[in-house]
Amino acid sequence: MDRLPTMIFKRLAFGxxxxxxxxxxxxxxxxxxxxxxAQTILGQAATxxxxxxxxxxxxxxxxxxxxxxxxxxxxxxxxxGESLASGRPISELLSARLGNTFFLAGVSAVLAVPLALFLxxxxxxxRDRWVDKFISISTLSAISFPEFFIAYILILWFSVEYxxxxxxxxxxxxxxxxxxxxxxxxxxxxxxxxxxxxxxxLTRAAILNVISAPYIEMALLKGLSPWxxxxxxxxxxxxxxxxxxxxxxxAFMIVGSVVIEVVFVxxxxxxxxxxAVSNRDVPVVQASVLIFASAYVSLNxxxxxxxxxxxxxxxxxx
Amino acid sequence: MHNFWPALIRAPMSAKIGILIIAFNxxxxxxxxxxxxxxxxxxxxxxxxxxxxxxxxxxxxxPTLLGTDHIGRDILTRLLYGARNxxxxxxxxxxxxxxxxxxxxxxxxTLRGWVDQVLSRSFxxxxxxxxxxxxxxxxxxxxxxxxxxxxxIALLDSTRVFRISRAIAMxxxxxxxxxxxxLRGEGLWWxxxxxxxxxTLPPLVAEFGLRFCFVFLFIAALSFLGxxxxxxxxxxxxxxxxxxxxxxxxxxxxxIPAAAIAFLTVGVxxxxxxxxxLTSSIRPGR
Lengths: 318, 286
Description:
Chain A is mainly α. Chain A has 13 helices and no strands.
């Protein structure tokens, strides 16, 4: 029985290693700037003294490993530095936006996960019939269409033609939950449409994979109803890959929200990151990349650990 | 290649449609300057004039079939030149990604040992970081010139190519004919080129289609965010971005380049699906 803890431990170790390497890459990103950061910030016209002063302020006169450890310590204690563009502390900029991004991803997940599981099961039940064909066509289009295409079609329908939902998702802490939901309706719907196709396709594949097993044929020969076979016999064994798919999609939603936040001018982390990249506000980019990457890596880690735990084959080693 | 034409004739309808879509886009990209009614950056009329669907739109000679953009340039012209830039850059990037990913993947599969370990582990870490986030960080440091864009995206994408080409080459590498050529004393390069490469190509061609779609959508997304191909060059992602404000007034112009992106990706995916079916029937179990 000691195989399971070992596997989980290995996976956790890899996750932590990944996070450390990400932090190194993020840190190195600033190191790799041509010239040095102080020069870049102040421009060519800066005087020697100004550059030296800023260099000392940013700690650029220290060796690289010292600065990395300092920086890491600061990041871990929540001190993310100041934005070059606005001079405000980055943690202040991030806190509200991080909540908004998680809110959007959460609403989309609540819509998308049950829908994807339901559609996945339906498409297995009606395999090779018109439902299945219809679902595979919509999957193909959801995979092929750029996010903003889907988003603008939804805007055109729901906000220009019928004026049900706003096309700009302004959101603030003092809004009621209902008006918040109204504001994120279209971005959440877009994220749902994009991720449902992917999740459903993998759910379908996972169940189909199980269905070709001999015990399913046995159940079929016993004369069980198709619904019972899928729900009672196939689903528990397909659970491990399906859970994996769901958690990976949550990770995908947090990252995938970048483009969608820009489309709907939603005040989330993605919008902040994109603005910071175009202003070359490197400290803000560093902080948001670190948050996005850690959220993504942690969720993927969770997905793998869950799929190890829920895999019946690994639970009872021979 | 000798059984390519019969296979094409027997191909399902969806694959034929896909091939037509791809051919149509490639022709538009190659012959853009000859087909386009106006110049790439030429202003033709007022902003956001409607196209053929609106009979009351102002008439021009030659006609602006698809209307005009936010500063009055002909959408059809911009689309044609955009095909050139968007598809061209995506193709170059995908080729570069395959050149890097395939050579490293084949090397790892043939040499095994520490080369394989080092390459596989480091690529695994890179793949654990979301591509868009990684790319945004690098672009914020290096700037968004076109060659930087191509190299960054190609290198990030080559990790995926590496993984699949290594996996496929691993299967081929254990075959007897590779063993024979090793015993015969052939060199590493010869084995990779003459024994492994021909036998891994069919699945890799399908992968090329998928990677192309990914890179194409990725560049479009970056351009849409204003971080990809820079104006005044026409490109489909930036065209959506430039005209995006119009959507709130019910102007459908930003949907045209977005639809063009979707159209090409659907076409490539249709062909890839067909190709995957073909190669899976050749090689059972893959």
